[in-house]
Amino acid sequence: MSLVAVGSVAFDSVETPFGSRERMLGGSAVHFSLAASFFTDVRVVGVVGADFGAGELAVLERRGVATGDLERIEGGRTFFWRGRYGFDLNTAHTLDTRLNVFGDFRPALSPASRSARVLFLGNIQPDLQRDVRAQCDRAAFSALDSMNLWIDVARDSLVEAIRLVDCVILNDAEVRMLTGEASLARAARAIRELGPRLVVAKQGEYGAALYSDEGFFALPGYPLETVVDPTGAGDSFAGGFLGYLAAHAGEPLTDGLFRRALAYGTVLASFNVEEFGTERVQRLTPGEIEARYRELRNMTQFDAVPFTRPA
Amino acid sequence: MSLVAVGSVAFDSVETPFGSRERMLGGSAVHFSLAASFFTDVRVVGVVGADFGAGELAVLERRGVATGDLERIEGGRTFFWRGRYGFDLNTAHTLDTRLNVFGDFRPALSPASRSARVLFLGNIQPDLQRDVRAQCDRAAFSALDSMNLWIDVARDSLVEAIRLVDCVILNDAEVRMLTGEASLARAARAIRELGPRLVVAKQGEYGAALYSDEGFFALPGYPLETVVDPTGAGDSFAGGFLGYLAAHAGEPLTDGLFRRALAYGTVLASFNVEEFGTERVQRLTPGEIEARYRELRNMTQFDAVPFTRPA
Prior knowledge:
Two copies of one chain form a homodimer.
Chain A: E1 2-6, E2 10-16, E3 19-26, H1 28-36, E4 41-49, H2 54-62, E5 70-73, E6 79-85, E7 92-98, H3 111-114, E8 118-121, H4 126-135, E9 141-145, H5 148-153, H6 155-163, E10 167-171, H7 172-179, H8 184-192, E11 198-202, E12 208-212, E13 215-219, H9 233-247, H10 255-272, H11 279-282, H12 286-298
Parallel strand pairs in A: 1-4, 1-8, 2-6, 4-5, 8-9, 9-10, 10-11
Antiparallel strand pairs in A: 2-3, 6-7, 11-12, 12-13
Helix pairs in contact in A: 1-9, 4-6, 7-8, 9-10, 10-12
């Protein structure tokens, strides 16, 4: 089943306690597509400038990602972000943001993308998310990501976009911020009452939680002694999650399927942060993914043995 | 198997967004003992003043907690804490702390307490923890809790205390602070290299993680729409964890046992925070504990189905 992802395509310059890189391939649509490509056919929708070369395109194409919907603006420059992470790697400090061609991005999907079964609306302006959702109206399952900026400046449009999708994937702080609820469980319920069947709350190193009609499910983050670069972790998570779902989009979408998808999302995010940018995911193998999925499962299982209080 | 807990016995005045209470029975040894009492025989070691009445004692004794090692200082007053929690309930703002008789606490264990098989050293000055550990030298399993204050002002003594126990139970921020490691996995390893077999990192609403020779295990917090009063959650967690272990102290201490203990700790903490102080735990039943344990297990299980990439 095909999966279409719309979002940013970027060059990222990143500094962490473990080193720095200049102008790496990045952006939400890139991290998402590479992660999802291990599970299903992916088409990426985005915009790049003349500085986006054959080398960058090849990274996507080597993973089988269809790049026909990457609009190229001659004379323009690709979205650029420069950031720094401190000691705890939890917070990105933005040093420079240049929207460049991304500032005028108006996604126009090809017929192939319009017929996708599964749609991921990466973190872009909510009006554009709604427009893409309308273009891709045959999608059987759709999900969106967003950020604090849009909650601040385009809340009404974001709420309308949320009404149109099956799944919302946000950081837990954003789930709270969007709803004004301090309790994550209440906040997730408030979002589901807008329409989405699923709310996925990303919790960084603490993992992720899934709220649905079937109840609550949560997984810890895969424990890493060294996180080299957290950039793109959330998008890799979403890519693993939706990639796995898209691969099974012809089957009933059961709670068990959503749980396994959340585990694959967790696994893909954990690989993404082991090296800078897309470096680790570029040479990732299906066998490594399977092995870590099994490890994660082993890290979260416990027996159903009742306790007995001694007499 | 008997379990001995040493720690604070207190009166807590607490204000949260859901209301307030004056001079509730509290303190680490109280929350711990009540939680552990569902699993095993518990003896509580602490100090109280003349203001500690028959009503407070009865709360412990109704749960079968042995109070013979609660030293009563005539003319003295019991440890008092006043605090307030804001909107997100994650941070306690201390408004008043009066150590009173707790400031001169020198635990002297009765013969019955000295022969305990399992020992919990609640959050008290690390010199005292070491002294109690020496008094209770036949314990087959011992654990300690601590806090940022002791890491700041008595780090060397705390490290010596840690060398003497089998298990360290701390908030994840304290695990990092103690070791200076930003990575929780590295920080836990550094503590285990001091001697303890287990490090349990409490993560508030995110749950808890267990680091041992057998690897990593983690559980989310039980999802509650309303947390009324988080005071004592960490001690209730430790009580459920060690109470379950103590009930099985005659068996081999396997990884599976530790995992189930972590789940029971998570369950007891979740009940504790549903109402003010010890109110909810006072009328908790074994059946409720079992039911929530099963629920928690259902919230964390997923299948070992490998993915297959379509051709």
